[in-house]
Design a protein that fits this description.
The chain has 16 helices and 19 strands. With 484 residues, the protein is α/β, with parallel strands linked by helices. The structure holds adenosine-5'-diphosphate and alpha-D-glucopyranose (GLC). Alpha-D-glucopyranose binds next to helix 1.
Length: 484
């Protein structure tokens, strides 16, 4: 029997996602399954926000108990083979949780406490069936409750080794201290684990009780121990350093492949790159950009201050003056949306802003862009720069977090070597403008562009290596693989 690793996550592509978390949960589990792990994923079922068409969903016979602190609630579990059949996923439909959107409600903390509670209950059912989870692996604050409940409530899951993976330290799951009892935590657990700065902090609580803390790139693992990137938890993370490790994300090279991507009008690959030009022309046509030979700069992003979208808006006129075109896809913060909307109005024909969440268009932007902007203030890993490289768009990124670990920086356009993109350091619009100015020069140099593209498209970002490192961590915590 293969050992079970139970992952708990709010997002799971292609069923429901708001960013890279969903993609990681699409890519890592099958890679672990290939290494001999029986991977099970617990996630929410959010009603209309969950795309489950085509899945063979089997409802569990009996509802499960998701009561917290005496508030009686029942949830329904739908089991399905996902990830091409290699993984078992449990979709949890529960009061509060299943409302039609993933996030954005006042009671999100409670909603995801219910997800954590359901994960524990599913673990207990597996235990009763004689197949207990060998490892509990929670992702981000939404799943932190699973680790906290498993570890601090009496029962057979108490001794199951656990990991919490930080995909983004900016979101921690905060509530007033007075909520601890309502969320099912004893005063001891509050004081020992959850309390931070006079409030309840779920992520910090999971850091304290979990056996390992992982994050999604080695550079981010170092950065979050500093005041600049620690989101106030740097001291906690320094204290817990011995159990903190950075493991770089991969990408799903099958789903993200310009040779087979059905969202694109033309197929291409590193050995046959012609189709990329057709994709660029098609993108211009689709979005109403003037035809011609200007280099196209792409952005696909959540609109939050993390991503430096304000700087993109600020430098747009200069990018156009220098002969570039800009395509931006994203939604979120209203002030950032306005900024991009007005930039596109003023620079019609050269700048397009699409306010939407649109996976197909995102893929056509990776394919149709010459360069891809990622001026992040911080970036735990970042998947979009890897998708861009795989689709032959050269990233221009700020040197932070996973961007440092995935983009090999260009030093001279006359000697590209192994470079895959442009990295710059300073956090400012001027620094981004400088990098873009160089990018435009490079984009006009066919030799340099060809070499950069080839290096990017041929880079290996597959999940295999990362999955092996996760497996080492699991084994270090006691997981035993059966002899093949
Ligand atoms: P983050 O998780 O911080 O948002 P990542 O780079 O890890 O950043 O992952 C972002 C993921 O979300 C990528 O799959 C990207 O294509 C997708 N994405 C972001 N914004 C949009 C959008 N507006 N439309 C479609 N896909 C988007
Ligand atoms: C987060 C981070 C991003 C990372 C993703 C998946 O949302 O912002 O950098 O790639 O999670 O780990």
């Amino acid at each position: 029997m293969k050992p079970i690793v139970l992952h708990v996550t709010a997002e799971l592509s292609p069923h429901h996602k708001s960013g890279g978390l969903g993609d990681v949960l699409a890519g890592l589990p099958p890679a672990l399954a290939r290494l001999g792990v029986d991977v099970r994923v617990v996630t929410g079922f959010y009603g209309s926000a969950s795309k489950v068409a085509g899945l063979d969903l089997r409802p569990w016979d009996a509802p499960i108990d998701v009561s917290i602190a005496g508030n009686r609630m029942e949830a329904r579990v739908f089991e399905a083979r996902t990830h091409g059949g290699s993984v078992t996923t449990y979709f949890v439909e529960a009061p509060h949780l299943s409302r039609g959107k993933l996030y954005g409600y006042d009671d999100d903390l409670y909603r995801f406490a219910i997800l954590g509670r359901a994960a524990v209950e599913i673990g207990l059912v597996l235990d009763r069936m004689g197949t207990p989870p060998a490892i509990l692996h929670a992702h981000d604050w939404h799943a932190a409750s699973a680790v906290l409940y498993a570890r601090t409530w009496p029962g057979p899951l108490r001794g199951v080794p656990s990991l919490i993976t930080i995909h983004n330290l900016a979101y921690q799951g905060l509530a007033p201290a007075s909520q601890a009892g309502f969320l099912g935590y004893s005063p001891e657990t509050y004081h020992h684990a959850l309390a931070f700065d006079g409030a309840l902090n779920l992520l910090k609580g999971a850091f304290v009780v979990a056996d390992r803390i992982t994050t999604v790139s080695p550079t981010y693992a170092r950065e979050i121990r500093t005041a600049r990137y620690g989101h106030d938890l740097e001291h906690v993370l320094r204290w817990l350093s011995p159990k903190l490790i950075g493991i770089l994300n991969g990408i799903d090279a099958e789903s993200w492949n310009p040779a087979t991507d059905r969202a694109l009008g033309a197929a291409y690959s590193a050995s046959d790159p012609e189709g990329k030009l057709a994709c660029r022309d098609a993108l211009r046509f689709e979005l109403g950009l003037s035809p011609g030979r200007s280099p196209v700069f792409g952005v696909v992003s959540r609109f939050t201050s993390q991503k430096g979208i304000d700087w993109v808006g600020e430098i747009a006129p200069q990018l156009v003056r220098q002969g570039g075109q800009l395509v931006v896809l994203g939604e979120g913060d209203a002030a950032l949306e306005h900024r991009l909307y007005w930039a596109a109005q003023r620079l019609r024909g050269s700048v397009v802003y699409v306010r939407a969440f649109d996976d197909g268009l995102a893929r056509r932007i990776y394919a149709g862009s010459d360069m891809f902007l990622m001026p992040s203030r911080f970036e735990p890993c970042g998947l979009t720069q890897m998708y861009a490289m795989r689709y032959g768009a050269v990233p221009i990124a700020r040197a932070t977090g996973g961007l440092v670990d995935t983009v090999a920086p260009l030093h001279s356009q006359y000697d590209v070597g192994g470079a895959t993109g442009i990295l710059y350091e300073e956090e400012s619009a001027e620094a981004l403008a400088g990098a873009v100015e160089w990018g435009i020069q490079v984009a006009r140099d066919p030799g340099a562009m060809h070499a950069l593209r080839q290096n990017g498209m041929r880079s290996d970002f597959s999940w295999e290596r990362s999955a092996e490192t996760y497996l080492e961590v699991y084994m270090d915590l006691g997981l035993e693989l059966d002899a093949p």
